[in-house]
Amino acid sequence: MSNLLEIRNLHKSYGDVEVLKGVDCTMAQGDVISIIGSSGSGKTTMLRCINMLEEFQGGSISIDGEEIGYETAGGQRHRKKEKEIARQRALTGMAFQQFNLFPHMTAARNVMLGLMKVKKLGKDEARSIAEKWLDRVGLRSRADHFPGQLSGGQQQRVAIARAIAMNPRLMLFDEVTSALDPELVNEVLQVIKALAQDGMSMLLVTHEMRFAYEVSNRVIFMNQGRIGEEGNPREMFHKPQTERLAEFLKTSSFG
Amino acid sequence: MDIAHFLDVLWLARFPILKGLGVTISISLLAICFGTVLGVFVGLALTYGVRPLRWIVRGYTDFIRGTPVLVLVLASYYVLGTIGLDLGPFQAGVLALAVFCSSHVGEIVRGALQSIPKGQTEAAKAIGLTFPQTFAYVLGPQALRQVLPAWVNTAAEMVKASTLLSIIGVAELLLRTQELISRSFMSLEFYFFAGFLYFVINYAIERFGRYVERKTAVPS
């Protein structure tokens, strides 16, 4: 069976600054992987490359064996057509640090937009799927509220419902609790945990070390654009192999 | 001032005045409609256009916005004829105003689009929307709400600028009024009356803008 996600020798630069210096990573169906590391280590960039929100200059990313974003023909690597990239983006779902809900639409409409315009479902079917997922994140009663009427934690849960309603192969979470007040963090983590228990494959960039420890079956420690260390959370957190990781854990909330 | 006499003259001149009012409204409506449609494309090009296109459109808006409307009107009527594009005064006038309107609307649209956080586009991309879909359902509706107040302003400016067409002989409200004054010598009364009619048109535009603003307001 081919891997769900396969990243090979990923290189990414912003101008002269190289942020990813050759990252390799594979992920199987049902894996829950947390990416940790200090800011600037490239964890968010890596996640954004998988969703083609960032261009990358070298290496390849495949989902179910299908190469994302670029194709090589006649020795020339070039970007796929926008329409094709849009389709491939829907293979993954993404939740953002800043939620990014559409402020002019109700919670239900936010979830329905992709279902209707990308999956071409009818309005009624889209609505019932939206309600099902809003129910799953505990917000059925808020379906007709606008984002401005919801708390940060509620907005983030709607954003997760919006991504997951598209039935992606893989969910990407980009520091989804970093912008939340401390008392709202838990409700969002509970939702993610429940999704993990359902067997959803996910890749999480997070600063919540205890959560990473509890929810993931593998942890990747990013360090200066490379994978510094990876393994199961128990070994990584209790017996770090590298000086860098030991230092990072000491200064993080896990220590 | 004799009110009865004024009303008498006004009644006798009702048809020319109504015709002038009709011409003023047609000029304004056409200029605003064409100018807005063109302006949306100008705004899109300024925001998302590839570099050479963006430069050309930027040059266009800066040039037009830096030129007095009267000069545009005169140029459109007298200069276009010399290059073989012979427009009547009405068409030439509408063209000049629409071009002027488009450069203003273009800037307003650019400002509105650029003020929308990047995260909106990213979230739309992440659920698999193409760019045209992102614009139609995510960016456009949000930009519309921001554009409205400034757009109402521009529309009112166009109505006022339509008076400049009297100079190239378009029989709009101001020219009709002036003709009437030259016959009746009641300049104060009829300039006031014309001013009142312009006010009514602009007030209607403003109410319409408010109405759309209220209708599209997002609860929070």
TrEMBL record, chain A:
It is found in: Cell membrane. It holds the Pfam family ABC_tran. It comes from the Bacteria. Residues 5-249 form the ABC transporter domain. SMART domains: AAA. One of its GO terms (molecular function) is ATP hydrolysis activity. Signal peptide: none annotated. GO terms for cellular component: plasma membrane. It is a peripheral membrane protein. Keywords: Amino-acid transport, ATP-binding, Cell membrane, Membrane, Nucleotide-binding, Transport. Belongs to the ABC transporter superfamily. This is Amino acid ABC transporter ATP-binding protein. It comes from Phyllobacterium pellucidum.
UniProtKB/TrEMBL annotation, chain B:
PROSITE patterns: ABC_TM1. It is found in: Cell inner membrane; Cell membrane. It is a multi-pass membrane protein. Its main location: membrane. InterPro entries: AA_ABC_transptr_permease_3TM, ArtM/GltK/GlnP/TcyL/YhdX-like, MetI-like, MetI-like_sf. The keyword Endoplasmic reticulum does not apply. Gene3D superfamilies: MetI-like. Residues 21-209 form the ABC transmembrane type-1 domain. The keyword GTP-binding does not apply. Belongs to the binding-protein-dependent transport system permease family. HisMQ subfamily. This is Amino acid ABC transporter permease. It comes from Phyllobacterium pellucidum.
